[in-house]
Automatic annotation (TrEMBL):
Belongs to the LysR transcriptional regulatory family. Keywords: DNA-binding, Transcription, Transcription regulation. InterPro entries: LysR_HTH_N, LysR_subst-bd, WH-like_DNA-bd_sf, WH_DNA-bd_sf. Residues 1-58 form the HTH lysR-type domain. It comes from Faecalibacterium butyricigenerans. This is LysR family transcriptional regulator.
Length: 291
């Protein structure tokens, strides 16, 4: 039983069309028909009902479909197990939260390329909701985000690291030396915040709303690293992940405000769809993030 024929069978089953499968696989339609005829002869049963222009799986075809997927995955895993990391090729598609990109991505990409130089990395920024949609449609392989813990039955969580989020002010700001800053005092300050819909911005808004307060920033911006730079310039206060502002805090360019009435911790998470086969390049990326 040839793996090529099994692969063709699965494409036809998904596309409900011999001609569409032929176009996608780069075969002639006659070659596709011959492959399925050979497979049906080997199995001793028809796999498709062909009525007019419609193509549907027979009962036997539906039963074989599950085994066909398992056979292909097993063959891919066997091939990958014998392949050294530097020989791994193909594509790795990763969606990332913007706040993860500036801090973790440069070193991560350098290390990954050194480990798997033949893998093409396709990266895109996305919100958590967009990541879930893309994973469900198999348009990405991995999602790397900063959010509330995402514990869904459709996901496999590969990495989960808690990350505090903090209020920061320019060095020398009048509130920097306060032992505790009340939320009502904080809400009266000039703020630069990430856009609504971003995880830690929403968490902040919810905690303020619970006390009947709100912060109305005079600048909203998607880039956390750029917000950090603007706070360093004295343009206002912000609420940002600690890992973003840590270098500026250590250098004395920013001050962390002590706000005991509002503590927020997000989770830096790397996950993939539970039905996704873990490719060698996915395993390599996950291992680097875990480090």
């Amino acid at each position: 039983m040839e793996l090529r024929n099994i692969n063709t069978f699965l494409h036809i089953a998904e596309l409900h069309s011999f001609s569409s499968a032929a176009r996608e696989l780069g075969y002639s339609q006659s070659a596709v028909s011959a492959q399925i005829a050979q497979l049906e002869a080997e199995l001793g049963t028809p796999l498709f009902d062909r009525v007019g222009k419609t193509v549907r799986l027979t009962d036997a075809g539906q039963t074989f479909q599950t085994y066909a997927r398992t056979l292909l995955i097993t063959a891919q895993q066997a091939k990958a197990a014998l392949m050294p990391a530097r020989a791994v090729s193909g594509t790795l598609r990763v969606a990332l939260a913007d706040s993860v990109c500036s801090t973790f991505l440069p070193d991560l990409l350098q290390q990954f390329h050194a480990l798997c130089p033949q893998v093409e990395l396709v990266l895109r920024t996305a919100t958590a909701d967009e990541m879930l949609r893309l994973l469900g449609a198999n348009q990405i392989d991995l999602a790397y985000t900063l959010d509330q813990p995402l514990l869904l039955p459709s996901l496999t969580l590969a990495v989960n690291v808690p990350e505090p989020v903090c209020f920061v002010a320019p060095a020398g700001h009048p509130l920097a030396e306060a032992e505790a800053v009340p939320l009502d005092v904080l809400a009266q300050q000039e703020f630069l915040l990430t856009e609504r819909g971003m995880s830690y911005r929403d968490a902040l808004d919810q905690r303020l709303a619970a006390r009947g307060l709100a912060i109305h920033p005079y600048i909203e911006l998607g880039s956390a690293s750029l917000l950090c730079q603007m706070v360093e310039r004295g343009m206002g206060l912000s609420f940002l992940p600690e890992y973003i502002v840590c270098p500026a805090l250590s250098a004395g360019r920013l001050a962390r405000l002590r706000v005991p009435d509002c503590t927020v911790t997000m989770h830096r998470q790397l996950f993939y769809h539970k039905d996704k086969w873990l490719t060698p390049q996915m395993k390599a990326f996950i291992a680097l993030v875990e480090q």
